[in-house]
Amino acid sequence: MNIVLIGFMGSGKTTIGKALARRKGLKFTDTDTVIEKQLNISIKDIFSCFGEAHFRRLEKQSIDQLMNIKDCVIAVGGGAVMFQNNLDTLKGIGITVFLDAPIQKIFDNLKGKFRPLVGNTIDENKLCELLETRYSTYKKAQVIINTEGLSIEQTVDEIVKRLGL
Ligand code: S3P
Question: Which residue is closest in CA terms to ligand 1's atom 16?
């Protein structure tokens, strides 16, 4: 069985995904990392050299490549499920879990990190606006985990409990 973690950038998909995979003896993959490794270029450079539309094509390909994967925790970039075809594909691959993190946690997690869509200096209002436009789509996940006040391990506990793993 596969578990697909979706949610906003900085919500902890990669960190929690790795911890969950370790706990349950599953594999872990992150579509952004797969793109970077396969093409030997950073996500940042893909955005700046080729633009977002090109990144989205690569992102779709990396999701389509997961079709036959087994026993894996999959983390996808925060914008991936904004495309209904990606969400449909991911629902066919595994159980989708939305990591619903409060904005303050997202903001703290992103501090000092670069994300192409928000740049270096993260404006909390802009971040909120983007999250608002995406929230209803994230909520289409089969399972929603509110991570407010939960540590990484507590979030893993909650996923394990909710999925009956
Ligand atoms: C994006 C999120 C990023 C990455 C790219 C676009 C988005 O992944 O895929 O910068 O559209 O929200 P994370 O969610 O892992 O930060």
Answer: 9
Please state which of the ranges 74-83, 122-131, 144-153 shows the lowest mean pLDDT.
122-131
Name which residue leads in pLDDT, 54 or 122.
54
77 lines ligand 1 (CB under 6 A): yes
Q: What does the pLDDT average to over 146-162? A: 98
Report how far apart the first and last C-alpha atoms of the chain are (Å, whole number).
Answer: 10
7 lines ligand 1 (CB under 6 A): no
- The b/e string for 124-147 (b: 16+ C-beta within 10 A; e otherwise) is eeebeebbeebeebbeebeeebeb
Cα(32) to centroid of ligand 1, in Å? 8
pTM above threshold 0.90: yes
97, 145 Cβ separation under 8 angstroms: yes
* Cβ-based neighbours of 154, under 8 Å, separated by 6 or more: none
157 CB under 6 A from ligand 1? no
* CA-only gyration radius of the chain, Å: 15
Cβ atoms of 59 and 80 closer than 8 Å: yes
